[in-house]
């Protein structure tokens, strides 16, 4: 059974940094497209970044070069390094494994709260 467990969220001041982790079990992150999404209070969940099987990455426009998605194949973990955080980055951040091939459904983690406030 696929499980995705996010961690690393917390309270940080504007301009600060956090690194989110998504530890996967029952799957292999290096052979799946993986992504990060976020959902702020009262708003719809929105896409943040994806990392492809190739290792290539794409980002939402609002990231503006501040975030970096990566993975550690040995640890079977995907990361989201977030720098220059803004109050508007406050949200619950979710890890996603995209469905494909023999596993057509998407999988989501439970989320980790990120709060950017002074």
Could you name the key traits of this structure?
118 residues, mainly beta, 11 strands, 0% helix
Alpha-carbon Rg, integer: 14 Å
Assign the structural class, choosing from mainly alpha, mainly beta, alpha/beta, alpha+beta, or little secondary structure.
mainly beta
Biggest sheet: strands, sense, closure? 7 strands, mixed
The geometry reads as: globular
Beta strands, count: 11
Strand content is over 45%
Q: Roughly how many Å apart are the termini?
A: 40 Å
Order of helices and strands: EEEEEEEEEEE
Residue-averaged pLDDT: 96
Query: Ranges with pLDDT <50 over ≥5 residues?
Result: none
Instruction: Bin the helical content.
Output: under 10%
Instruction: Give the number of helices.
Output: 0
Summarize this, please?
The chain is mostly beta strands and 118 residues long.
Describe the model.
With 118 residues, the chain is mostly beta strands. Helices cover 0% and strands 48% of the residues. The strands form 2 sheets. Strands 2, 4, 5, 6, 9, 10 and 11 form a 7-stranded mixed β-sheet that branches. It has a 4-stranded antiparallel β-sheet with strand order 1-3-8-7, with no helix packed on it. The N and C termini lie far apart (40 Å). The relative contact order is 0.32.
